Amino acid sequence: MAAPTHGDHAARTPGAGPMARGDIVRFRDDTFGTRNWGHKGLRLALRRLSLPEAVWKPGPGLHSVWEQINHVAYWKRYVRERIRGRSRQTNQAWPPAGRTAAGLRRAIAGLERLHRDLRRDVLALPAEAYETRGGPRYSATQLLLGEAAHDAYHIGQIFLTRKLYRRRRRPA
Predict the structure, then answer these.
(1) What's the burial of 125, exposed, middle or buried (CB within 10 Å: 0-12/13-18/19+)?
(2) Which of 171, 166, 168, 169 lies closest to 49 in space, CA to CA?
(3) Between helices 101-124 and 17-32, what is the axis angle to 10°?
(4) DSSP code of residue 93
(5) Taking burial as the number of CB atoms within 10 A of a residue's CB, which of 14, 110, 112, 143 is the most buried?
(6) Who contacts 15 (Cβ-Cβ below 8 Å, separation ≥6)?
(7) What is the pTM of this model?
């Protein structure tokens, strides 16, 4: 039998349920927290984020840190709905940034709440759900690991945007 290829969505890891749950929860928590095995976490990326830094865009067509926060939250909501058995059409969503420090605090708190809610949903999934497709193409395991990978990508973007913001403010 040939090994599954990258695009083989039917491939499954036999018996992944209960063991995968703990690994998925830890990987998601570490990625969202301050550090996972390979990089700093989202909570650390957002630490001491100021309003000017959150709304600054590095250039035309590029996203602010706040837009990235909203984008990550959008996809966490989407994955949460999918693993709960609700499917909907979606597209690349970039909800706009707000304008106030209080709004920024709410956006970050909302992202933390979404992470906790999705974590609770992951822990409540029956073992067989990890191998069952959460829609037409992906298992719950694939969706949850994809969500963590998506977070990791945007963590890098947030760190880079913040670094660019600080560098642009330095005197020459």
Answers:
(1) buried
(2) 166
(3) 170
(4) -
(5) 143
(6) none
(7) 0.84
Residue 92 contacts by C-beta under 8 Å, 6 or more apart in sequence? none
Q: What is the DSSP letter of 70?
A: H
Encoded tokens for 53: 């830094």
Place of tokens 């420090």: 101
Paired with 133 in beta bridges are 139
Q: At 48, give phi and psi (nearest 5°).
A: 55, 35
Residues 6+ apart with CB under 8 A from 44: 33, 34, 35
Low-confidence spans in the chain with pLDDT less than 70: 1-19, 37, 132-136, 169-172
Predicted local distance difference test score (pLDDT) of residue 98: 96
CA dist 68 and 97 (Å) reads 9
Contacts of 87 (CB under 8 A, 6+ apart): 81, 135, 136
Residue 171, SS3 per DSSP? coil
What sign does the CA torsion over 9, 10, 11, 17 have? positive
